[in-house]
Design brief:
alpha/beta, about 325 residues, 3-stranded antiparallel beta sheet, 6-stranded mixed beta sheet
Length: about 325
């Protein structure tokens, strides 16, 4: 399946392989033993809560085996700013920011993900509406997981801000897709300018072949050139000068440069391990952190469990990879 090419049919219609029978559909619960042991609470209404990452990892691995690739931490706390992730163990090269990461608590865990879902759950359930995992929340988790590999390439466009910028066309002029590691994407086709947004229901989310290459899921021979649309910078508009113009912004494109995978490799080195040697299938676990003195919200646990059989990663990777949610 070529993620750079338009295709007939819908990849989201294809079911993933069945999950193994040994996969327990449970959420692991960590309870605070004293106030702010694991969650550093906001001090004023204008501040956000934070997680005590090292203490969470230490406490988690005291009672759980080192068998997970991704930890999805979804605390019972509403005042986090957003989802985020960071690498825990990382030893790849050739993908941009090639700095090794390791942890004293785990040799296997790849990334720690904060999933800021509880605020949505509380706001919706408080209105008497059954909360559901909308596609946007599903892709938020996979977006954060994919940050383990993407996006800090050199030689693509300036210094990438950890995401694909708006002026990159990663799908060869196709208007059908947008990479979930970006938020907007300009396409210039037959002399016309088009801007695809992440919430555009006429386009499908999935990982481009360049992202799949960084993830070690395909080789360089499967990655077509990408188009970099150069544009006039605007004095004082630091955001757009880095990210590229927003869909609604006045702008002027001054040219388009094709960047081949070989040029990217010359700037970043060959990916190691290669696609032939890299891991393709992963597992993840949800962890609910319960603040000190509070009860476990079992209705919330039930909704997290509903997510654990999501097949969206399998679809987003064009059936190249799979994540199993287990405990």
């Amino acid at each position: 399946l070529d993620a750079n090419s338009p295709q007939s049919g819908n990849i989201f219609d294809i079911a993933p392989p069945e999950l193994p029978d040994s996969c327990a559909n449970d959420v692991i619960i960590l309870k605070e033993s004293f106030p702010e042991e694991l969650i550093l609470l906001n001090k004023t209404p204008s501040e956000f809560s934070y997680l005590n990452h090292d203490v969470i990892l230490e406490k988690f691995y005291k009672t759980n085996k080192d068998k997970y690739d991704f930890l999805i931490v979804a605390p019972q706390e509403v005042n986090f700013q957003s989802h985020y992730s960071f690498p825990v163990n990382k030893n790849m090269t050739g993908i941009g920011a090639d700095y090794p990461q390791s942890s004293p608590y785990t040799s296997r865990l790849m990334s720690f993900v904060l999933f800021n879902y509880y605020s949505y759950y509380k706001s919706v359930s408080g209105l008497g509406i059954k909360p559901q995992f909308m596609l946007g929340y599903q892709t938020s988790i996979y977006h954060e997981i994919a940050h383990h590999w993407c996006c800090t390439l050199k030689g693509v466009y300036g210094e990438l801000p950890g995401h694909w910028t708006n002026n990159l066309d990663l799908f060869g002029g196709s208007l059908d897709y947008i990479d979930i590691m970006g938020y907007k994407a300009w396409v210039i086709k037959d002399g016309q300018e088009y801007c695809i947004e992440e919430n555009d229901y006429n386009s499908n989310w999935k990982f481009s072949n360049l992202t799949l290459y960084l993830m070690g899921l395909i080789g360089k021979e499967s990655v077509n050139s990408i188009q970099v649309h150069e544009f006039e910078k605007i004095e004082g508009n630091e955001h757009d000068n880095i990210w590229g113009p927003d869909c609604q912004d006045e702008h002027k494109f001054t040219g388009t440069v094709n960047v081949s995978i070989q040029e990217i490799i010359s700037q970043n080195g060959v990916r190691v391990p290669s696609a032939q040697q890299s891991k393709k299938d992963f597992n993840a676990v949800f962890v609910d952190i319960v603040p000190y003195g509070e009860a476990v919200d079992y209705e919330y646990i039930k909704y997290l469990k509903e997510y654990m059989r999501s097949d969206e990663w399998y679809n987003l990777t064009s059936h190249k990879s799979r994540i199993t949610f287990c405990s």
